[in-house]
Amino acid sequence: MTSSPAADRAAGPADRAATAPPDGIAPVLAEVVRSGFVEGRHRGSLVVLDADGGVEWALGTVDAPVFPRSSNKPMQAAAVLRAGLELAGERLALAAASHSGEPFHLDLVRTMIAEAGLPDGALRTPPDLPLDPVEAEAYLAAGQVRERITMNCSGKHTAMLAACAVNGWPLESYLAPDHPLQQLVHEGVEAASGERVTEVGVDGCGAPLLAISLTGLARAFRSFVLAAPGTPERRVADAMRAHPEYVAGTRRADTWLMREVPGTLAKMGAEAVQALALPDGRALAFKLDDGGTRALGPVLARALERLGVTSPVVARIADAPLLGGGERVGEVRAAF
């Protein structure tokens, strides 16, 4: 028996979440509400781990492989440390970043390229505009064009190339899955997640993309915040938490959370992936099936509320307004 649209609107989130979807259909994690009418839904899967690492609760299918996209970046940054590259502070945070393309991001990428003595043309990120829309408008208004350095993964790629230079590994093939550096990444993802990588693809930046489950992704983030001081994993987590504006940008939820909820490690990924760990070892990961990033904030905020996180930043990231005629007429809201 299915509910009517009117009943759907009247039901609270807890009532809706209690009604299991048919087999094979992911549960609704967020709704798009315009003028009081639910005009769309974002389905997906979400897992929350308790402080001991067990699954506290889950929605949808959390043990099937997904591409974590940029949520894998902490593991990639740890690999460059294991390869012998000495990075710390803002530089290490930028190695794990999906940066917004703000001037301080691009200035540091250029500095890192010069410090590593990388040749012109070594960076293989696709030419792109700044990820942040405000920065992209300013960039274009200044008469600039898409560049490889402006792509949001340029910090990660610069660190990868620098690690190759330190070891005398080939620069031209640094993105090949069988390259020594990418083999270190592969091993690190499996070790942190406690799973075997089931699929290898190509990410938007051209780097190898390694599939693990949402449970494995949450487990990986948990392992980074609980790692012993001085280990590559803890060094990455500490750098990201100390310099969150380099991980994302001044107008991004990952930055706000790591700045305002002490000890939190957070990293989003394309196609609506999000992973997060709290300093006590509780962790979560989710993916929206349709890739709808507009629902990332509301879903993440609701999960944090259920974890008992009470910081004002939670309400800030939950707010996802819909406009009509330039005025707020609705919102994207969590539905669990």
Explain the overall architecture.
It is globular, with a radius of gyration of 20 Å. The longest helix is centred in the N-terminal third of the chain and has 14 residues, at 103-116. The strands form 3 sheets. Strands 1, 2, 3, 8, 9, 10, 11 and 12 form an 8-stranded antiparallel sheet that branches. Helix 3 (73-82) runs parallel beside helix 7, helix 4 packs across helix 10 (232-242) and helix 12 runs antiparallel to helix 14 (312-318). Strand 5 and strand 6 (208-210) form a beta hairpin. The protein has 336 residues and is of the alpha+beta class. It is built from 14 helices and 12 strands.
Index terms:
alpha+beta, disordered N terminus, 336 residues, two-stranded antiparallel sheet
> Helix count?
14
Query: What is the molecular shape?
Result: globular
Low-confidence stretches: 1-20
Q: Report the count of strand segments.
A: 12
**Overall pLDDT score:** 94
Q: Give the termini separation.
A: 20 Å
Task: State the helical fraction.
Answer: 25-40%
Given helix and strand content, the structural type is alpha+beta
What's the alpha carbon Rg, rounded to whole Å? Answer: 20 Å
Largest sheet: 8 strands, antiparallel
Strand content: 15-25%
SSE sequence, one letter per element = HHEEEEHHHHHHEEEHHHHEEEHHEE
Short description:
With 336 residues, the protein is an alpha+beta fold. The protein is 40% helix and 19% strand. The strands form three sheets. Strands 1, 2, 3, 8, 9, 10, 11 and 12 form an eight-stranded antiparallel β-sheet that branches. Strands 4-7 form a two-stranded antiparallel sheet.
